[in-house]
Automatic annotation (TrEMBL):
Its EC number is 3.4.11.2. Belongs to the peptidase M1 family. This is Aminopeptidase N. Gene3D superfamilies: 2.60.40.1840, 3.30.2010.30, Neutral Protease Domain 2, Peptidase M1, alanyl aminopeptidase, C-terminal domain, tricorn interacting facor f3 domain. InterPro entries: Aminopeptidase_N-like_N, Aminopeptidase_N-like_N_sf, PepN_Ig-like_sf, Peptidase_M1, Peptidase_M1_dom, Peptidase_M1_pepN, Peptidase_M1_pepN_C, Peptidase_M1_pepN_C_sf. It comes from Albidovulum marisflavi. It comes from the Bacteria. Keywords: Aminopeptidase, Hydrolase, Metal-binding, Metalloprotease, Protease, Zinc. Residues 27-186 form the Aminopeptidase N-like N-terminal domain. Its cofactor is Zn(2+). Residues 444-535 form the Peptidase M1 alanyl aminopeptidase Ig-like fold domain.
Amino acid sequence: MKDASPQTIYLKDYQPFPFRIERVDLTFRLAPKTTRVISRIAFAPNPERAGRHDLFLHGEKLRLIAARIDGADVPAALLTVTDEGATVAAQALPDGPFLWEAEVEIDPEGNTALEGLYMSGGMYCTQCEAEGFRKITYYPDRPDVMAPFKVRIESDMPVMLSNGNPTASGPGWAEWDDPWPKPSYLFALVAGNLVNLPDSFTTRSGRKVDLNIWVRPGDLDRCAFAMDSLIRSMTWDEEAYGREYDLDVFNIVAVDDFNMGAMENKGLNIFNSKLVLASPETATDLDFERIEGVIAHEYFHNWTGNRITCRDWFQLCLKEGLTVFRDQQFTSAMRSEPVKRIEDVLSLRARQFREDMGPLAHPPRPSSFVEINNFYTATVYEKGAEVIGMLKRLVGDDGYARALDLYFDRHDGDAATIEDWLKVFEDATGRDLSQFKRWYTDAGTPRLSVSEDWRDGTLTLTFTQMTPPTPGQDTKLPRVIPIAVGLLNPNGDEILPTTILEMTEATQSFRFADLASRPVASILRGFSAPVVLEREVPASERAFLLAHDTDPFNRWEAGRALAKDVLVRMVTDDDAPSADYISALGRLLTDDSLDPAFRALCLRLPSEDDLAQTLAEAGRSPDPDRIHTARETLARTVAERLVRPLALTYDAMADRGPFSPDATAAGRRSLRVAALGLLNRIDGGARAQTLFDAAGNMTESAAALACLIEAGRAEAALPAFHERWKGNRLVIDKWFMIQVVHAAPHQAAEVAERLAAHPDFDWRNPNRARSLLGGIAANHAGFHHASGAAYRFYADWLLRLDPVNPQIAARLSTAFETWARYDADRRAMVAAELQRIRSAPGLSRDLSEMTGRILG
Ligand code: 0A1
Ligand code: ZN
């Protein structure tokens, strides 16, 4: 989308649309370059907006063929058409209800931005969130305008799908009816040569629902896990939230070209094929877990997003935060709760904290935006979910359940706001949440510092909170912070079980009296609030918590903090790796009472980006080379000192029976490959080679390949892997990514250049572009190499991608969001690349907004 002067849109300017829509009828005559869309839309005045109004309908890249009101052509003088839409002057409109009819022509094949109606591998599909429907026909493309849709599709494709229930079909046509009023962003259409995996589900009130997963012929043998995940999601949502499905069919379609992960269109979810297709040979355990989680996420949107949608896009976290929270609960229920919590916190810190500390920081509910597609962020999604977790901690499980019941009762069929959401909690629990609301309106991650005072059998914990300034928000008021605390006596017995302290002031003390001896405090258990805990803790206390904490999250956290302390000292003071840390790790590794997945997480050293962030938080400029060297040295030292237990673990965790994707088997594999990653530093890739040659599943195969690259002996493995998997796009994506992620820092840009010239580098495919570019950005020392070669390579590709798919270019540009952390030379190189991008003629609104904000 080219736009000379992109406009900022403000939450405070919200006004309801002057018209309501009673029903929508759409006919599609599909043709790759010339699809006709005929719309009939029954409008009526909206009583919330008195007076007469022009009718403005969004529309972009449409060729208008005819426009009629109540059967008569709209006079040319009363119809204004621009790049953004069509306006019918008020005097052309009757006082009461009227019928708008339009015929437009669109070009799905030429739609490389993958927004609106486009083609992927010969099939037609749509993506309408957030503002794609306006590229299909003229419409008030905003989430607060909801209507029932009827759709007729005419094409020579064997399968034609849309939202709702199928009503009739014949040779070359099919009709669909969606009785549930929905906003246009939930519209979907698919037509193609597809095959389906069918199943069914009977809801607890007895409605039989036909389930289908539609894929390209040849992919059918990789859908079973997704179907199983769907059925488990439907069951769980009934049990945990009392939510039933509400149509006769639920269709999922997998497409290869998709900008995001998946989309919750009513009754017709469209998925990136990487989040549907899985077999043991082609998908890693992480892929399986993501598929399960995203299938659940999209299904859960049926209530939190579709039945109750958002009034405007500023409220995006209303549906996304809640739905992420629900999918996290689901995964915890299906797998291990502590392991899931640790994984979520790792991802929160890596993505959301990083965002919150840089130039792109914004509140979960922003108050302005230029391009809404740039706000599908970790803050809206993951922090949005954390805020709900805190609400639940504050009001308790019963309060949460009452509030949610009230939310569904009160707002079913509504386009709601964050105010509506908080009000149901206030009404259901009697709490005043006005201070809590700051979590939605303020950006930035609070820093929470703690001091301890011990005297006369009383422990006093004094907390101070401070949130650094973020763009446009210089001063911050104190927030409500639920701090989960437990106390352990020196033997490791719990003397105070987890208790929630409710902090509301800038500084606040909490007392624990009548204690026989000085306890050890376990603070922020379960990561009860998304804050940075700043606390000087002696290594001995961390080691004690790592050995004894009864809260598994904090047990892991203690080990992680120890590892970080060690690594930071190695980077800043050239310290030797700490023997205490390594022996603590050794004890954990061999503790068979602990879940292997948990042990695997403990073995994983903090990432280089995480260390850079930690150093930056402490006001130091991180040196990527030193960080890389320190981490490598620690990994090698751990491997040398723990070679025996690591080798035993590696052997013991081998799969015993047939492959299972379940959490237990996946946890064993993750411990096995974590041990392999360390041993690989000292066995010259010997184990990796054996595993690569024998691996029967992708988790081990991909891990072995990565190890071989790191050991510098992948010359045979890389072509062998390519040869074996050249027919499978998803596996070839991995082949691209692994090579750049694991390349030595000084070679990373060169490897990326070489791969970009590979005939399989189909960069118009978002997954493929993300594999290579996301891969190099994830190679911290490679991306930030002092030569600046990776910065240049990356910027070149953003410029190339932007005219083709601005959304993808803009998302990838976040690799530069941390630039201000680094030294002056690196900062100058990144700034020059960002300026080069900004000066490109015809830059998209998406990338222009992002580069502008990143530069600050
Ligand atoms: N609502 C979807 C994510 C999504 C958002 C935007 C898209 O295109 C710009 C596509 C999908 C979800 O949360 O799963
Ligand atoms: Zn979502």
